[in-house]
Amino acid sequence: MKSRARITLVTAGHLSTCPRMLRIADALNADGYAIRVVSTRFLDWATDADTAVRRTRHWPWVTVDYSRRSGNRTRVWSGLRMRAVGVIGRAIGTAVPLSIAGNAYSRVHSELVRAIRREPADLIYAGTGTALAAAAAASRRTGVPYALDLEDFHSGENGDADPARDALAEKVERRVLPGARFLTTASEPMQAAYRAKYGVAATVIHNVLPLPSPPQPRSRPSGDPLRLYWFSQTIGTGRGLESAVRACGLLSRRCELHLRGREAHGCLDSLRDLQRSVAPLLTLEHHPPAPPDDMVRLCAGYDVGLATELPTSPNKVVCISNKIFTYLAAGLPVASSDTPGQRVIAEQDPQAVRLFRPDDAASLAELLRCWTTGDDAALSAASRAAWNAAARRWHWEHAEEQGALIALVRGALTT
What we know:
CATH architecture of the largest domain: 3-Layer(aba) Sandwich
Shape: globular
Oligomer: single chain
Radius of gyration: 22 Å
CATH class of the largest domain: Alpha Beta
Number of strands: 13
Strand content: 15-25%
Helix content: 40-55%
Number of helices: 16
Strand order of the largest sheet: 3-2-1-4-5-6-7
Structural class: alpha/beta
Distance between the termini: 22 Å
């Protein structure tokens, strides 16, 4: 009996906070590969979400633990090492070796390398920026080929907020991208950005989700509030939520704005203060984070999904928010900020995804008003268009999504 090819999948985050890598693991496992997952543990709430993910998966999964609760020794040591190596890296300049660049960019680079090497593999496939160097380093030490998933434009994630961090990401990318057996990325504009900067070719695999059963038709009794939904790992400033609150105030009708995620830096109190000032007819509701397997189901019952990303960094310009594909799978029409990345989806499905000017409350209010004037027939039509868009193109089982990934992996293992 022929043995199954062994693939080690790597993320420097929690697997529950990296739904893209979770889908990849599920797909490769279903296609018959012997997969093993390496991830990290450092956030208590995400560790609880990881537990929910584990209940329905049975492939080998190891974690690098640097949480305060159970991995504090590694947390302290890795923090000290990262700062020390960062000083060395800056002193060396552009010729910094990969081991130094990796440890300066990723807190647990060395621990990830050791975890990857612990078991034999035929292919190493890593996603998240701070896992890229670990995959390449483990590949060099074992002779096993590696592939990389570029979900974000990592050397442009911070922009003016932290240019030194982006410069460090660029040092890593210049060293590791050319040697990868294949590269995947998450949008056409992001693909073009990587090609322009490094001359590399990456295959676009969108952040689409498995297609669920069609949603039940929803009826909205006359006079019901408009229910808007937004989710992320973190509810913070700079996410376009202030404009969403102001837009609800301009609608002059009862609205509910539901936010799912962990609050950062008192953001909810600031949003509630703003709501009381400019949107007295708006009710603001907060919901806790949830495991990735539940995200589509949790959209049920809402009227419109908000993707309010702001083009505050080169990455935000070219990315497509995961929210858009989640909303479409749930049959929610999407109010999306007009960025080059998100415009790609709106141009293909303009009835399901409509654009407003980023951080422009009047533009968002005008969009919502077009969907909600009169008997809400326009909103019902937009909901049907959202589901149809997901069923036609924007789902994980599509040949250009999961099918493209499987073809890349098969090709890498037979080269």
